[in-house]
Design goal:
The complex is a heterodimer of chains A (about 350) and B (about 400). Chain A is of the alpha+beta class and about 350 residues long. In chain A, about 55% of the residues lie in helices and about 10% in strands. Chain A has a 4-stranded mixed sheet, with helices on one face. A 3-stranded antiparallel sheet of chain A has the order 2-6-5, with no helix packed on it. The longest helix of chain A has about 30 residues. Chain B is of the alpha+beta class and about 400 residues long. Helices cover about 45% and strands about 15% of the residues of chain B. In chain B, strands 1-4-5-8 form a 4-stranded mixed sheet. In chain B, a hairpin with an 8-residue loop joins strand 6 and strand 7. The chains are: A alpha+beta (about 350), B alpha+beta (about 400). Chains A and B meet through helix 7, strand 9, helix 8, helix 9 and helix 12 of A and helix 7, helix 8, helix 9 and helix 12 of B.
């Protein structure tokens, strides 16, 4: 049993963090709407999209814990772009020999994939989806949609016949959304069961939220050490210090359950599905509460557009609404107790 | 990263489980005000563990302990709780604080005399640290000890001494140099509780029980050879093993908490809810239960992380204080949830109902964020020692 990062995992984390820091230097750059094509190419060249694929499938041979490391860093840096769908797509495509080229294009950064989460099958269960799903994250920069239905997983070209994409702003200036309408669009069925991908998605979204919890904690602590009022650093006042302590507790709670869930899911532990939902709930709670506290800790500056405190909080809200809210997951977790 | 235990560790688990299943006392632990019966029960269980080779799992072998690795300790405490083995209360200070302190700082004679007695379950130890004016600010303690020949003569008062009225020995912090800076003039002394001049008065707590005591010292003569470590170096001696006070022993409490959540879910299926139906049918109560279970699972993951970090680095990490704070507040959230699920039964104290048990747990749990450093002190520790914020 070991829930610490190995030296190899630490070097993966440091390498990813270094690239993102170079590519996304200033807070203002985070508010740019379009994902940086240079970063995307570099990510592909470094094998980020295929971290979790076996080497035989062109991947790095790691697993969900290493993908989790990537998404924590993406959350910390507020990186723009359809990272989640692209990584999930590699998993979905890797098991289908006839789609080798598609896989290579995704892994190589030439095909960007957004996820259309449709657990209630609003798009129907037939191979050809029909209907509209709103609020698809990064939907207007995707080349392909990975449609996760109640059961099936479908692959639909974004620019193809029968697909209409209407991009718009969201609460989060660093993440646009799209309303995506399908009208008898040609689609490829990738898998009969969407549940495994959805669980992976829960952990990766939770990891992104964990990154926000980490980063906002660090920002608040740094501010508390340097900002002076009444002739002292404000971090010496218990009101601020204790708020930072609570941020640290939430972050450690989130980090522990996210890593635990990632390993449990990788190893197909029977309790893994429960832990994936718990990770989503607790990591989002940490990101939302830390995001809020971080605005507070920065005082007047925290309320400005110029400071990036608001961007973390806004991203946290986007993540809350990805793959089920806290309320929905808590209801699902309580359901077995209520049955009968 | 790995959440499974090794084959050797699983073999250790199987041994521990088998032994516990065969040996955990069937008689229920006595409850209520009869501390003598409680003490006898706990010491008999300690003796049983000693005879079975399971006393002091974390203690080094050369001092009669099991010498278990950190991972084995994790497993032992998990199995201990799983088997429903008795909570460690009267024997806690001896096993988890005074004993480890003697191991770290005691003389050969002190170790030879005391350690076997603690392990065998011959004696109960209590703690004499806090004073009426030295709680969170422990270093301001004022109980004086003056050297007269080969003896220390102690005068003053201690408070919040758990089981002081059924203990043989006390780990006692006294001020031996009133002129020195406050952390420097303190000594850590072994005090026999039957020494003339000691007056022990139980304090009735808000739960109605009387395990806390005030201890008064009036010219109490303690041999100088009972000083542990060097004279005036008691602060360092006390801090040397403060981590032991919680450490892995804390795991059993977590497992018990996990079981409490499951018990609460069962209770919520059997009692009426606030708007008719069962309590579990109430959305808010059901979500709070699900959140409680998530938080308990997260705490286990935090503990695993903390232990595996300690294994990797060789030193206990700072995140122990994070776990500590989270645990104490989680206990209180779960206790509060229990009373909300119970509804009016929480206050009726019917002899046949579950209400009294949960209500007592709630009241007892109020001390979670006070004892051993209030939650405010814990937040200071996290802010200053973990995050590096200025004092």
């Amino acid at each position: 049993m070991d829930l610490t990062f190995s030296p190899e995992q630490e070097s993966i984390r440091d390498a990813i963090r270094g690239v993102l820091a170079d590519r996304i230097p200033a807070p203002r750059a985070r508010a740019e709407l379009a994902p940086d094509p240079g970063l995307w190419r570099e990510a592909a060249a470094l094998g980020w999209f295929a971290l979790g694929l076996p080497e035989a499938a062109g991947g790095a041979g790691y697993g969900l814990p290493e993908e989790t490391i990537l998404f924590v860093e993406l959350g910390r840096s507020l990186a723009a772009g359809p990272w989640l769908g692209t990584v999930l797509a590699t998993h979905a495509l890797a098991v289908i020999p006839t789609l080798r080229d598609e896989l290579a294009n995704v892994v190589g950064g030439r095909t960007r994939v957004a996820v259309v989460d449709d657990p209630a099958d609003a798009l129907g269960e037939a191979t050809r989806p029909a209907g509209t799903v709103c609020g698809v994250a990064d939907g207007d920069v995707a080349d392909v949609f990975l449609v996760l239905g109640g059961r099936g997983v479908r692959w639909v070209a974004a620019g193809g016949r029968g697909v209409r994409v209407t991009g718009r702003e969201s609460l989060d200036p660093t993440r646009r959304v799209a309303d995506v309408s399908f009208a008898d669009a040609p689609a490829e069925l990738l898998a009969a069961e969407a549940i495994p991908l959805r669980r992976t998605a829960l952990v990766l979204v939770a990891a992104e939220a964990l990154g926000i919890a980490e980063r906002t904690l660090e920002a608040s602590v740094a501010h508390g050490k340097t900002r002076e009022q009444f002739g002292r650093p404000i971090g010496s006042f218990q009101a601020v210090k204790h708020r930072c302590a609570d941020m640290a507790v939430r972050t450690e709670v989130a980090r522990s359950i996210v890593l635990f869930a990632a390993v449990a899911l990788r190893d197909l532990e029977p309790e893994a599905p429960r832990h994936a939902q718990q990770a989503k709930v607790l990591a989002i709670s940490a990101a939302l509460a830390n995001g809020h506290d971080n605005v507070q800790n920065h005082g007047g500056m925290g309320f400005t557009w110029e400071a990036d405190a608001h961007l973390y909080l806004k991203r946290a809200w986007m993540l809350e609404h990805a793959f089920g809210t806290r309320t929905a997951h808590l209801d699902a977790l309580a359901a077995p107790w209520r049955a009968g | 990263m790995e959440i499974r235990f090794s084959a050797a560790e699983e073999a250790f688990r199987a041994d521990a489980r088998a032994w516990l299943e065969a040996n955990v006392p069937r008689a229920r632990r006595p409850v209520g005000a009869d501390l003598r019966s409680l003490r006898d029960y706990d010491l008999a269980w300690q003796r049983r563990m000693f005879e079975g080779g399971w006393a002091g799992v974390s203690w080094p072998r050369e001092y009669g302990g099991r010498g278990a690795s950190l991972m084995e300790q994790v497993i032992w405490y998990e199995e201990y709780a799983r088997a429903g083995a008795p909570e460690v209360t009267t024997t806690f200070v001896g096993l988890n604080h005074a004993g480890p302190t003697l191991i770290a700082c005691g003389s050969a004679e002190q170790k030879a005399f005391h350690l076997p007695r603690i392990l065998r379950g011959d004696v109960v130890w209590c703690q004499g640290f806090s004073e009426p004016n030295a709680g969170s600010d422990l270093a301001s303690l004022q109980t004086r000890a003056v050297i007269e020949g080969e003896e220390l003569v102690v005068s003053g008062q201690k408070i919040w001494t758990s089981f002081g009225n059924v203990a043989e020995f006390q780990e006692l912090l006294v001020r031996t140099d009133p002129e020195a800076p406050r952390h420097r003039g303190i000594s850590w002394v072994i005090c026999a509780m039957d020494t003339p001049g000691i007056d022990i008065r139980p304090i009735k707590t808000l739960t109605g029980d009387q395990h806390f005591c005030e201890v008064f010292y009036d010219g109490v003569r303690i041999p100088l050879r009972n000083v542990v470590g060097r004279l005036n170096d008691g602060w360092r001696v006390a801090m040397a093993t403060l981590g032991f006070e919680r450490g892995t022993a804390f795991l059993s409490e977590q497992i018990r908490l996990a079981r409490r959540v499951e018990d609460l879910a069962a209770l919520a299926r059997s009692v009426p809810g606030p708007r008719g139906g069962r309590a579990i049918d109430d959305d808010e109560l059901a979500r709070r239960l699900a959140l409680a279970r998530a938080e308990v699972d997260a705490m286990r993951a935090m503990t695993y992380r903390s232990v595996s970090l300690a294994v990797r680095t060789g030193v206990p990490g700072a995140e122990a204080s994070v776990i500590r704070l989270f645990f104490s507040e989680l206990v209180q959230r779960i206790d509060l949830l229990a009373l909300d699920i119970l509804g009016p039964a929480a206050v009726e104290r019917r002899a046949d109902g579950a209400g009294a048990r949960w209500a007592d747990a709630y009241l007892g749990g109020l001390s979670q964020t006070i004892g051993g450093g209030t939650k405010d002190i814990q937040r200071n520790i996290i802010g200053e020692r973990v995050l590096g914020l200025p004092r």
